[in-house]
């Protein structure tokens, strides 16, 4: 039974050639962004990153101040 399924299956080079052909066909259908879209998206990503860096810094500073300075000073 293993011999029958092996005989009907194409060899590795035929399968690789079909794969490369399929990849080329898919790449022709891709809609690539233009330069303005890439720049606009990059600006949005950088601004979002900066916002979350600042937000994390503020939350970290506040929680550090609250837990280390205020709560640690209660027992003194």
Can you give keywords for this protein?
mainly alpha; elongated; 80% helix; single chain; 0% strand; 76 residues
Offer a quick outline of the entry.
This protein has 76 residues and is an all-alpha fold. Helix content is 80%, strand content 0%. The protein is elongated.
Could you describe the 3D structure shown?
This protein has one domain (2-70). The N and C termini lie far apart (82 Å). The chain is built from 3 helices and no strands. The chain is mostly helical and 76 residues long. The protein has helices at 2-8, 12-29, 35-70. The radius of gyration is 29 Å and the shape is elongated.
List the topology elements:
Blueprint: H1 2-8, H2 12-29, H3 35-70
Mean pLDDT score, rounded?
A: 87
Classify the beta-strand content into a percent band.
under 5%
N/C terminus separation? 82 Å
Gross geometry: elongated
Number of domains: 1
Low-confidence stretches: none
Report the count of strand segments. 0
Number of helices: 3
Q: Radius of gyration, rounded?
A: 29 Å
Biggest sheet layout: none
């Amino acid at each position: 039974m293993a011999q029958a399924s092996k005989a009907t299956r194409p060899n590795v080079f035929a399968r690789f050639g079909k794969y490369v052909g399929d990849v080329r066909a898919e790449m022709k259908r891709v809609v690539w962004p233009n330069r303005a879209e890439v720049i606009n998206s990059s600006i949005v990503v950088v601004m979002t990153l900066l916002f979350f860096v600042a937000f994390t810094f503020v939350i970290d500073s506040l929680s550090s101040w609250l837990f280390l300075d205020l709560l640690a000073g209660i027992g003194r």
